[in-house]
Design a protein that fits this description.
four-stranded antiparallel β-sheet; 7 helices; six-stranded mixed β-sheet; Rossmann fold; binds adenosine-5'-triphosphate; alpha/beta; 35% helix; 10 strands; single chain
Length: 227
Amino acid sequence: MRLGPAVLEARSLTVSYGETRAVDAVDLALRPGSRTAIMGPSGSGKSTLVHALAGVVRPDAGEVWFEDERLDQLSEAERSRRRLSRMGMVFQFGDLVPELTVVENVMLPLQVLGEKARPARARALEMLDALGVADLADRRTGTVSGGQVQRAAVARSLVHGPSVVLADEPTGALDSLTAEQVLDTMVAVTSAAGAALVVVTHDHVVASHLDDLVVVRDGRVAEAAVA
Ligand SMILES: Nc1ncnc2c1ncn2[C@@H]1O[C@H](COP(=O)(O)OP(=O)(O)OP(=O)(O)O)[C@@H](O)[C@H]1O
């Protein structure tokens, strides 16, 4: 059992889209250094849960606490600022800026934090190298493959040393060997920083790289196994 306070916590979190209750009274506490897989059937609410934890989606009810602050009570601009500076996100369908190069996309979180271009580029290149895509650094993101975009998105989620990394199917477009390498990099970088890592996945091999498992069904936590 891990002691100490959670860095990110959902309390009775509920998110609805019209009549659909996508997340239904979920309690989830993510501690620094924890590694959690979120699994469950398609449509069970995994993405919505992660988006609410990140403050992208605002809950109808319940609370999201991030670094001792009520994230859900902040303005959109404040939530966005917290997310960009202190969280790393990998979205299911990627959200890199296609007009920017791969390395420019990875530099963005550092530049939001005020880092100068030269050190930001050097750090971004290191992270791209760790993910095996440094050779694509100067290609526009719109011209590289889905799996390469996914690896660049993972690099961007880790580059600024966030306290939480939330990744929605970060390896869905990758072959199994590359997927395991990407997972290992995510685990290594977050462990070194004492960050919490959350990965939504349908893949049991991916989940086996993580310590804790949360199974979501019909918007609820059906099972939770915490190491
Ligand atoms: N923007 C939206 N508008 C309306 N309904 C939505 C929206 N996003 C998700 N839903 C609904 O909310 C429920 C949960 O969806 P969500 O995408 O969170 O599930 P998921 O477990 O991540 O699915 P998958 O594994 O297929 O990605 C589903 O019933 C879905 O149809």
